[in-house]
Amino acid sequence: MKEFLQVLRRFVPPYKKYIALTATFNVLSAVLNIFSFAALIPILQILFRTEGAGSATHLMPWSFDNIKEVIANNADYYVTQLIANVGPTTTLLVIGLFLAFTTFLKTGAYFLSSATIIPVRTGVVRDIRNQLYRKITSLPLSFFSDERKGDIIARMTGDVQEVESSIMSSLDMLFKNPILITFYFGALIFISWQLTLFTIVFVPIFGWFMGCVGRKLKKKSIKAQSLWSDTMSQVEETLGGLRIVKAFCAEEKMNTRFSNINNEYRDAVQRVNIRQQMAHPMSEFLGTVLIIIVLWVGGILVLDNKILSGPSFIYYLVMLYSIINPLKEFSKASYNIPKGLASMERVDKILKAENTIKEPLQPKHIAAFDHQIEFRHVSFRYGEQWVLRDINLIIEKGKTVALVGQSGSGKSTLVDLIPRYYDVQEGEVLIDGINVKDLGIHDLRQLIGNVNQEAILFNDSFRGNITFGVESATQEQIEQAARIANAHEFIMQTEQGYDTNIGDRGGRLSGGQRQRVSIARAILKNPPILILDEATSALDTESERLVQDALERLMKSRTTVAIAHRLSTIKNADEICVMHEGEIVERGTHEELIALGGYYKKLHEMQK
Q1: Which partner for 222 in 278, 342, 392, 424 could form a disulfide, CB atoms 3.0-4.6 Å apart?
Q2: Nearest Cα to 210, choosing from 276, 290, 293?
Q3: What's the predicted TM-score (pTM) here?
Q4: Average pLDDT over residues 552-558
């Protein structure tokens, strides 16, 4: 219960007015229920002509000392007067109409109490999803290198849905059942405190039985949701690698792997659901046992001790039945809430993940890039493995610096330190003499444009992709950027021009076309610093020529850091840095490095 209340404290406060409304309507529903069923006493007295029916001859003055006798006497007096005036059968009709009217009001209040809790349920789930999405976009790239995309998707879909269906559906239990139980329990004490005292001895015993069955649900639910993540990861991997699956005729292998995971998930969910389904029959059985015990003890009070009248005992049973239903809801919640808490625990792994790339408390703002980028004694590691060691490099404004070397030598990691996708462990990265850790993150990244080996596009139109992050661009500016990127012609050949949707990840375009759209996006942003990460390595010769031409236009008057495997694309760079095992082992122009006869010359001859 403590964990459940902590979840509510985090997400429910914005919906206080709805909580107040639902509590008000629940109080009204409970009061009306008590008063409506109180009409059963005179009905039974009239029907069975029991002792006490029509015996009141005068009204008693109100007194809290003997309020029970006052209410019984005065109610009986009014019924007596009604019988005397209109007869017993018409009196039954009048009392019946009173019962129907109060029941109508009660059910209306009950409906309103449920209706006012729905905005809380749906709103909290929406807020959790929004927080998850914002957290995902704010977390550093290092977080996602340790997580599977399918697992994150599973947490945002299946786990959040489980929170909605388990925890949020139990809000009724928290804001309705305690109110109903309190009022109905008060009515039971008022009718017969002796019988109520005997009854409450058994309620904790029955609650203990229910708890025994539900204690293991959270652990089993965590395992089930973990297996759901494995299932989603398998689907995500299959969709991403479908071309390879078909190329290697591995459909049956993937089908078998998915089937095994899916069967394991089904078995885990089956165990959870079977245990969960025990809630209703067990609560039904224990409720019946309680009624039998009350019937036996109440019978003694009515028949032997004459402490309680027959109609009052029937009214007591009706109130007891009314209180059993909220108690059953509590028992269901003891099964549902652990499932939701298990999912919330998985959601919190993202929501409470530490963002290691922190905005400075008093960030320095920078509007333009004027002088140089400097790597000063920079060392970086992933975990315990050092990837960069004591890098010293100055990139002056307007110059092009190329990074070459074998895969895994640290080239991409080095350029990722400039926009603070990662932070260095030793040394510092400076822009115009200011440590990037002291700059506002958005100010820093506004200065930088990226063109990567894999063109990252979105399921949107050409216009939406080119203007990504530059929403105020005019049509003229969009077309100018596309022309510089050699993309305008093929865009205009599509059915709707710039409004044509390019499909998931630009799947309707060729590799060269995707790359030119991403270059147009970088041109429209017009950044003073440009990072090219093997932007032409995955293209055919003709596409490479078009893209290279677009890149050369983009690089004019900009400071460029280019990673390249094809040395032919960076011959004209102002400086080429050769990296090997996290260190810069050679640097100079193309001609100087060839003349040096070292590692660069070997790479060049291998490509020739």
Answers
A1: 342
A2: 276
A3: 0.72
A4: 76
